[in-house]
Structure formats: structure tokens, C-alpha cells
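Annex B, item 7. Sequence and C-alpha cells for protein A, then protein B.
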Amino acid sequence: MFASFFPRPKLFFLSAVVWTGLCMLFWYVAARDLGYSFSLGGLVGYGFPPPLAEGAGDAERAAYNAARGTAVDVWLYQYMILSGAAFCTLWHQLSPHRWFRWSVVASTAIMFITWFQVQLDVMINNWFGRFYDTVQKALATPGSVTIEEFFGHLATFASIALVYITVAVLTRFLVSHYIFRWRTAMNDYYVANWGRLRHIEGASQRIQEDTMRFAGIMENLGVSLIDSLMTLVAFLPILWVLSAHVTELPFIGEVPQGLVFVAILWSVVGTALLALAGIRLPGLEFRNQRVEAAYRKELVMGEDYADRAQPPTLDVLFHDVRQNYFRLYFNYMYFNIVRYSYLQAGVLVSYIALAPTIVAGAITLGIMQQIVRAFGRVEQSFQYLVHSWTTIVELISIYKRLKAFEATLKDEPLPEIEKEVMPRTVDIEA
């Protein structure tokens, strides 16, 4: 599943984590300040501004800080591209691989693009603060905000959104090709060993369908996980700073940085509840694939042999399909009760936490919007498992099916679930 596409998978993924950590550490220790000497931002109008003269006014300091912040961001983009290129070069030298351009280079590009999209989200969050403060000012004091200022804020949002949409569309195009390349790698690997795999129940479906589903789900879950981690890194400091405006939580009282702890606690509770409610789903999904495969196989055999796919046999096989689906529906019913109840209750959590602060009039509308949005992003990051649980269940069932291939090729015993007797057996000779 992995060795067909990635070079030395265990070492590759471990090295990616270690390399990322080292690059982050070096950025904060030294690389951040190297931008004055090495950044190419000045070529496109985003160079570092000259130092401020002594006695500079507030307006000049604000302009300097804004220009310097933009220059640091542009230098960070360059630093990440250089770090990614170095990582790819090292792996190309260390372990040449047929799928290097897609498994290593494309994976690195997808990580960078995901991080860039998170940065755009941070820009939008800052825009919400300024925009709603402007709205509050306009509503409180008629005539204090001009129509040009109002539309200027909207134009700023439109420019950020346009970049976001463009990047998102191009990313989906890249990801689509990425998924199919991963499927192709698995397909070629299993087809080359078809003689040893063909005797496994539903082998044709596992190669034709499960490889595509596995690659697609793994990519989506992987990108979602990276997005959650990067969003957490980006928004947790923002929420930490904004929590200074919230000095009291309802029913508890004063808690330093209370919003951060509320987000963490609520997410942990939700993850535990969903894991408990969905514990039986992976096995049921796997068994569902088995009964579907048995029914489909008999129908295919009936296309070539007149004595196969007779109505009595198909009735028995479809009964197994129906029985397993009904069992799956029942389990998903109480799982969804827990899931949707938790997600709907989560809409109110940030407002409940902010209730004493709002009632006391301690924050502006813009700050409230920034807090609510940052809280939501941090909460969603911690709730990765909550939002991805049904997809993870599907992935586990597919992984179990492809694991039988891995075991066969390594001359290992089949997983226990493969040895289970089907819910009902069919005597084809009858």
C-alpha cells in the first residue's frame, strides 16, 4: 500500500516529521533574521524596510511594522520552498524511486500549499476584526464611515478570496493526479503478483476499487491532518492573545487564557464520545464489503455459466447483503445521534464562554468576531478525529481488505477477520 509509491515508507515519513521540526526550530533560532541578507522580496516590492529613525511618530512606526511583517512573510515563503527543495533533493540522492516526482515532490508541494491556505485563512480572520469594528462604528455614529471605506474593506476580502479560490482549484487538480498516481503504483504492484493474490476472496474488486479508495481517503485524511496541525499552529497563538480580553468564564469565574482550555476540553470530550459510539463500525464496514463481493462475484459468474447466479442462490446472498446493511444502519443511527448532537452543541460553546464578557461590554464586535472565528478554528483542529471519524472507519475497512494482500505476499497468516465464516453459506451445487 505504501512501499509501492513511497521510497522506504517508514523512514520517509519519520524523516518528514523530523525535517519539519528541525526547519521550524532553525527558523525561530536564526533563519528569521537572515531575511535582511537573503530575501528576494525586494525584487517584487516586498523587501525589508530601512530601520526607523530615532523619534519616529506612531504612524511611521505602524507603517514600519506592517512593511516588516509583510517582508518576513515573503521571506518565510522562500525559506519553506528552499527547505522543501532540500528535503526532496536528499531523498532523491538517498533512495531513487520510480514515483519520486509524485510521492516526494508532489507531497511536499501539497504540504506547502496547505500551509499557504492556512495563512490566507489567518488574513481573513484579521479582516473580520477590522470589518466588524468598522460596522460597529458606522452603526453607532452615523456618518463616521464613508462608503469608500466600507467598499474598501469588501474589496480587500475579495482579493484574498480570489487568491484562495485560485489556489484551492489548482490544488484539487494536483491532488486528483496525485491520487491516481498512487493508485497506479498499487495497481502495478498487485497485478505483478496476481498469480499469488487471485485466490483471495474478492481479489479483483480489491485491486480495481479498493486501491483507488485507499489512495483517495489516505490523501484526504493526510491533507486534513496537516491542515489541522497547521491551523492549530497558526490560530492557537491568536486565540491565546485574544483570550486576554476574556477575564471570566460562566459558572467557573476567572481563568487565565480560559478560551484555550475550553476549546481543548470540549474537543477531547467530543473525540472520546465519537470513538466510543463508533467502535463497532470498522468491522461492520469490512463485513459489508465481503457480502457485497460474494453477491457481485456470483452475478459475474452467471454471465459466463448458465448454472450460476440462480434465483435461490442470489436470494440467499442478497439476504446477507440486506442483513449486514440493516445492522450497519442501526449502528450508524446511534453514532450519528452522538455526532450531530455534539456538533450542534458546539456552535454555542464559544458564545457561552464569552457570555460574561459580552454582557459586560468588555469587547468590540470586531474582537468578538475574531475570537469566535479563532476559537472555531482551534476547536476544529482539535476535533480532527470527530470530523473525520466516518472516513477513518471506511479507511480501516479498506485497509483490512488490502492487508490480506500484504500478508499473502509476505507469506504471513491472513488476518483473523479474513478467516471468519460468512454470515450465511451458499451451496452452489444445490
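Protein B:
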Amino acid sequence: MENIIEAGDLKKTYKLPGEEINALKGISFNVKHSEFVAIMGPSGAGKTTLLNLIGGLDNLSSGGLKVLGNEFSRLKEKDLSRIRRKSIGFVFQDFLLIPSLTALENVEMAMYLAKTDVNRENAVNILKRVGLGHRLKHLPYELSGGEMQRVAIARALAISPKIILADEPTGNLDTKNSQNIFDLLKQLNEEEGLTVMMATHNTKLGYQSKRAILMRDGNIEEDQKITGD
């Protein structure tokens, strides 16, 4: 099975007035197509930095990072933007829905921003896939936290991505909704072959994935395959 992500001696340094912060200190790993990888570790471990680099939201300082066959260190911002729009779906802790738009309109907006055809029927079907066929016309404030995150996942799916990057997607949810959102991501991985990388503090959820990468202080402490449920 081919690698969809390849990181070699990947480093990221943030230069601030009077100091440098080494967020990633030279990490190496590969992710194969259709893997589900949980990135775990305490705050400051480098989880979000890693996802931002893989998603083309930030630039690496040194090392190699190849995503979907593209060497990110060699790409200009317009090329990174194109890859983000066409191939990578993002899910964040804070949902980031547009409050004045309905669930359906939020998904359609994602299509518009990705410069793909805004297809209402497709948007409806995506919301049905995430269990929100009965919430199409609801505004975000009319939805529960779990439902808002489902809309956020539907929005990520609107571009038919090859990779889903989820940064603490259950961080603002209770235990039941956290498990439901994880189960949805796992279903998308298993049934549709989406590659999922999920950063999480929740070790109970993380160890339900197929693979766990444990990070601390910008390094990978452990990279383990997980068998069973």
C-alpha cells in the first residue's frame, strides 16, 4: 500500500523576539493510504503544528514532507492552496461554522470556497451521511455541539478529500458525543477509505484508532500499531 504522507527529519521552528521555539525537532514517519492515525500527547507536544504542516497551513523549517506525492518544501503558496482546496478536509475543535448560514448552506459554502460545483443535492446527501438529514435548515445555534461537529465534518467532506485532518475534534464535546464523532470518523475511514489523522488528548479514543503516534516536546516518543477494538 502506497504512502500518502511521508515525513523525513521534519522540523518546525518559530522565531519570536528574543527566542526560538522548536515545535518539531526532526520527526520521521509515513502514513499509508486509508490509515487512521491518532496523534496523542500533552499540550505543546507539537500535534497541531504537525497537522498544520501536513495540511499546508504552515511552512516547514527543514526536512522533507511529501503529501499526496507533492514535496511541500518545493511548493509555492498557490500550489499549497490548491492541494488544500481539492484534497484535504479540515475539522477543528471549535467547529468554525458560519453562524448566519444553515447546516446545508455551510456545506455549500465549503464547495464554493473550494471552487467546485455547488451542488445542493450532493450537499444534502453529505449531511445525510453524517446523520443530519433532519437538520438541514437549522442554524448553528440551533444545533448541539455534537451536531455542529457533524456539520463541520460534512463541510470537510464537501470537497471529496483524500485526507481528513482533525485537530482535537472532540475537545468541546461530552463523553457520549466525543465517542459518536470518533465513531463517525472511523466509519468514514473504514467504509470510504479516507485517510484520517486525528490529534487528541483523549487517550481512550486515540487507542481505538488503528495506529497511535505519541508525541512529547516536538518528538515522537512511540509509534504503534493497534490491533482489535
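Comment on protein B: Strands lie at 3-16, 19-32, 36-40, 62-67, 70-71, 88-92, 163-167, 195-200, 211-216, 219-225.
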